[in-house]
Amino acid sequence: MNVSLRQLRVFQAVAAQASFTRAGDQIGLTQPAVSRCVTELEQQLGLKLLDRTTREVVLTEAGRSLAARLERVLDELDTMLLDVRGLATQRQGRVRVASSPTLSANLLPACIARCRLEHPGLELVLLDRIQHDALASVLAGEVDFGVVIDPVQSADLQAETILTEPFCLVCPADHLLARRRSVRWTALAGEPLVLLDHASGSRRLIDEALRAHGVQAPVAQEVGHPTTIFRMLDAGLGISVVPLLALPPGGLPGLVARPLLPRVERRVVLVRRRHRALAPVAQLAWDLVRRVAGERAGD
Predict the structure, then answer these.
(1) Alpha-carbon dihedral of residues 132, 136, 137, 138, nearest 10 degrees?
(2) Is-contact 149 256, C-beta < 8 A?
(3) CA 264 to CA 13: how far, in whole Å?
(4) Within 10 Å of residue 261's Cβ, how many Cβ atoms?
(5) DSSP designation for 198
(6) Residue range 201-235, pLDDT digits in tens
(7) 3-state DSSP call for residue 284?
(8) Neighbours of 42 (CB within 10 A)
(9) CA 197/CA 223 separation, integer angstroms
(10) Sign of the C-alpha dihedral, residues 279, 281, 285, 288?
């Protein structure tokens, strides 16, 4: 059955006016066009809806049954379409975002605060998860989008880089490498390393950089969060390589951070399911996270 909305609206007008001519005047169609729409509707339904004479148009029993239900259905449809159209400018609602730990701690708080300031009706809900689980949440549709580190390319994800940042050395202030203004990757050879574990999106990049520069160094400890790394360095367990964003704004008492050369960067990436358009309110949140990250890059 291929009944069109236009046919239904024309029939509704004819039923209300009991006249093809008056119905045409009401909806802006000629009398032949009105008659043709009603005939097409009857053919699709396989029912006669109107008895036509030279002087009047009378609803059949099937016509009366359809007309009685049609007004409510079309009114509900109009309301629904207005509601959907209103989503284009919607700035209220809840947006769920999955983020890997270093970003949850060092980028997303500023995004949530900015969201509350600029869009009070938009609630940004953070799911703080290891990278693998954050990506799984995006793919499963559990969240609207994710903020992650250099994900492996996937045909199911659409990604947008919003920030690049370098890795740096962190070590105790009395370590020999702390005396240098910058440190070459090769200088890490033989040093005990305290690193983020492989659940982190950064660990793969750190391992690749160490291999690329021929660095052989024992991994003393693998942990899940930079804060744990810093406490271990305080205890004299080694040195570390961390992304710049992991460093607290207030600095690290007793520890120093030095640029690593050659510069190796990680990408902070927004990800969402491919071929799935974001709802307007989620797009608003996506744009806000991108903007805050861009401001961070410009600092």
Answers:
(1) 110
(2) no
(3) 70
(4) 15
(5) T
(6) 889 999 999 999 999 999 999 998 899 999 999 99
(7) helix
(8) 18
(9) 5
(10) positive
